[in-house]
Amino acid sequence: MLRAGPPSHTLLRLPLLQLLLLLVQAVGRGLGRASPAGGPLEDVVIERYHIPRVCPREVQMGDFVRYHYNGTFEDGKKFDSSYDRHTLVAIVVGVGRLITGMDRGLMGMCVNERRRLIVPPHLGYGSIGVAGLIPPDATLYFDVVLLDVWNKEDTVQVSTLLRPPHCPRMVQDSDFVRYHYNGTLLDGTAFDTSYSRGGTYDTYVGSGWLIKGMDQGLLGMCPGERRKIIIPPFLAYGEKGYGTVIPSQASLVFHVLLIDVHNPKDTVQLETLELPPGCVRRAVAGDFMRYHYNGSLMDGTLFDSSYSRNHTYNTYVGQGYIIPGMDQGLQGSCMGERRRITIPPHLAYGENGTGDKIPGSAVLIFDVHVIDFHNPADPVEIKTLSRPLETCNETTKLGDFVRYHYNCSLLDGTRLFSSHDHGAPQEATLGAHKVIEGLDTGLQGMCVGERRQLVVPPHLAHGESGARGVPGSAVLLFEVELVSREDGLPTGYLFVWHEDPPANLFEHMDLDKDGEVPAEEFSTFIKAQVSEGKGRLLPGQDPEKTIGDMFQNQDRNQDGKITAEELKLKSDEDQERVHEEL
C-alpha cells in the first residue's frame, strides 16, 4: 500500500514517467473495457450496497483511513486481499499514495459502509499492469469496508448523552476521577470495558496518567454525566497502537459514565437544604448530637441510611468518633436543620474505602437532619411564655406540692406525652425525686398560672438509655402550666401543726377518755385538726392512707390502739434520736 513495497501489495502508484507512457499508449488503443452501456468506463463505478444508518462524517481529501478490501478481476478471480494479510490498509486519501480509482472510490464513504468499486484501467494500473499480478488494461473490482477515518486537524469530539439536573462540580485538571467506560474502535469493535472488571477506573486528570484525548474529553464532566468521547489516534495510541486490541492509527470511542470527582485540596462542602426559624444555638465540638442521614455516592448510589434502622445516629461531634469530614460538617448546624455534606475521600475512607458498599477514593454525600444536640454541661433552659397579670407573692420551691399541666415532645416536634391525655393535672412534690431532675428544676420559682417552656438535656432527663417512648440521649421539650401549689412538709413528716400542739395531746386525742385511742378515734381527731386549720397533712397523698400510716407509726406494739406512753411527736422522736447518737 505504501509507495515502495512488494508486488503483492496492490493499488501501488506507478512512477509519474511510467504513468504518462501508459496514458499515451491508452489513448492510442482506446480507454480499455467498455461501460455497461457499451462504451469505455470514464470514471470509477461505485455501488454502495451497505450504508450505516448514522454517518457522523464522510471521507474527504487528506483524511487518514483504515479499511479492509478484497480485489478481484471481472471474472471473480482474486488478485489481492487485506483480509488474507490480517492487516488493515492505513493510509492518507487523495495525496497520491493510492491508485486514482481507489482515491476516488473512497471519497464520501462512512465508517462501516461497504462499497463495490469498479476501477477502469486508466484509473488503476493502465496498459502496463503489475508484472505477474495484474495484466495490462485490467478493470479492477474492489469490495471495501471502511473502519476508521480521521484527519490531522481533528480534535477530541465530545457528545453529552445524559447530564444530571444537579451538577455540584465539573472535572478540572488535577482532579481525581472515578468513572466507568466502554471502549470501542470507530467501527464498534470493543477493546476494553471497566464494567467487566467490577470496578471503576480511578485516576488523575491532566497529570499524564491518561492518553491525551481522554484527559481532554473528561474536562467539564459532572458526576452522573454520560459522554461519548471520540479520540483521534494522535491523541490516543498513535502508530504503535496498544497490544493486540488497539491497532496502529486507530480512532477510539469511549462511552463514559462519571461516578465522582474530587481534588486532593478539596474541603468539606456544605449546602443548607432547610433552616428552621429562630436558630439560637449551633453545634460545636464537644456537643452530643442525634441525627438522621442518608449516605450516597456521588452518582446517587445509596450506601447507608439511619432511617432504615428506624433510629438516629448518636455521637459526639468534633471528638474523632466519626470520619473527619462528618465531624467538620456537623459543626455549626442548628436543631432541626437539614443540610447536605459532601466529603472528599481524604476526609472519609480514603483510598481503601470500607466494606463492600464504599469503594476506594469515593466522595461521600450525606443528607443530614439534625434532631437535637446538647452538651454534658448544659443546664435546663427555661423560657417564660406567660405570667398571670395579678401580683405573684409566692413561687414554687423545693418541698412544695404542685399540680401542673404539661406537653412533652422531642425537639423535632415528635409528641411524647401530655397531661391533657389523662384529663387531670400532673401532681408532684418538688425535690422528692418523683419526676426527672430537669423538670423538677424547671418547675421551681413558678407562679400559679405561669406557663414555661423547658428544654431538658438528657443527663437531666432519661439519659443514654431513654425510657418507654423516649429515645436514648434525647433532649426533651416541655411546655408546662402551673395549676396550683401547696407548701410541702419537712422530709419524713406526714402531718404538721400550724401552731404549737395542745399541751396534753393524748388527752385531747382520747375523745372517750378511756385511756386508749383506737384507729377510728385517731382518724376523727386528725381530720378535725385539718378542718379547723390547726394542722395539715402531707399534700398529694390519699388522706386516709396518710392517717393510717400515722396511726401505724404511733401504735408501737401494733395492738390496734395508742396509749399515752406510745404517743410521741416526730420532733420529740428526732430529738431523742440526736441524744442517742450523741
From TrEMBL:
- Residues of the region (Disordered) are 533-582
The record's annotation in SMART domains points to: EFh (SM00054)
| Reaction equations catalysed | [protein]-peptidylproline (omega=180) = [protein]-peptidylproline (omega=0)
Its keywords, alphabetically, are: Calcium, Isomerase, Metal-binding, Repeat, Rotamase, Signal
Which CDD domains does this UniProt record tie to the protein? Answer: EFh
Q: Where is the composition biased (Basic and acidic residues)?
A: 556-582
Location of the PPIase FKBP-type domain:
62-150, 174-262, 286-374, 399-486
Keyword NADP, does the record have it?
no
Q: Which Pfam families match?
A: EF-hand_5, FKBP_C
Record carries keyword Transcription: no
Give start and end of each EF-hand domain: 497-532, 542-577
SUPFAM superfamilies assigned: EF-hand, FKBP-like
Catalytic EC class = isomerase
> Signal peptide location in the record?
1-26
Q: Which EC number(s) does the record attach to this protein?
A: 5.2.1.8
Q: Which PANTHER family match?
A: PEPTIDYL-PROLYL CIS-TRANS ISOMERASE FKBP10 (PTHR46046:SF3), PEPTIDYLPROLYL ISOMERASE (PTHR46046)
What is the name of this protein? Answer: peptidylprolyl isomerase
